[in-house]
Amino acid sequence: MSAALERGFYDRATVEVARAMLGTHLVHAGSTGERVGRIVETEAYIGPQDQASHSRRGVTPRTRIMFGPPGHAYIYLIYGRYHCMNVVTEAAGHGAAVLIRALEPVSNLDGRTNGPGLLCLAMDLDRRLNGEDLTGERLFLRAPPLPGRISIARGPRIGVDYAGAWARRHLRFYLRGNPFVSKG
DNA sequence: TGCACGATGAAC
DNA sequence: TTCATCGTGCAC
Fold first, then answer.
1. Tens digits of per-residue pLDDT, A147-158?
2. Is the CB of A78 under 7 A from strand C?
3. Full-model pTM
4. Which domains does chain A have, with CATH numbers?
5. Which bases of chain B come closer than 7 Å to a protein CB?
6. Nearest nucleotide (CA of A158 to C1')
7. DSSP secondary structure string, A164-178?
């Protein structure tokens, strides 16, 4: 019994998932205890047509997980030193995911969590968990114990200037006014 | 003179 | 992506 959000949560339009993830808890149940952070910032990468998405060049060894079934972790190494954690969305073969950009610490998190690389460090997430099933017991999302009203703001995604018009689309979502949202 | 902030480059 | 460094410009 892990109380993980079920697969259906991920099996729908990526933008919808990106918004629904805000306020939920990301849980990594590792050997050192349960690390938990509240998701306060996400970015939607909606498919191969999205020029900012890794899936734009189709299935490769790296993007294989992205094209797999929804509700799995896509974790990759960026710039040789940081990891980024995404959740796969929509039906298998679609090639979409949501990047988790910032967390508000809830329990057992050391260090900063206001950026995709930093939060992976604090949550102890790396490529060993690439492909992990998020409906399992090791790594998953769960509903917060005290769901409250939230105000969602949106804007352009960070660090995707190469993607032309896609870089300007408002596919980044965050909790308005939350101090743990990344600076970019 | 010194601080804050933006631009820049390096890390693999 | 993140950090350290360097430069500009403003304030004191």
1. 889 999 999 999
2. yes
3. 0.95
4. 7-175 (3.10.300.10)
5. 11-12
6. C1
7. THHHHS--EEEETT-
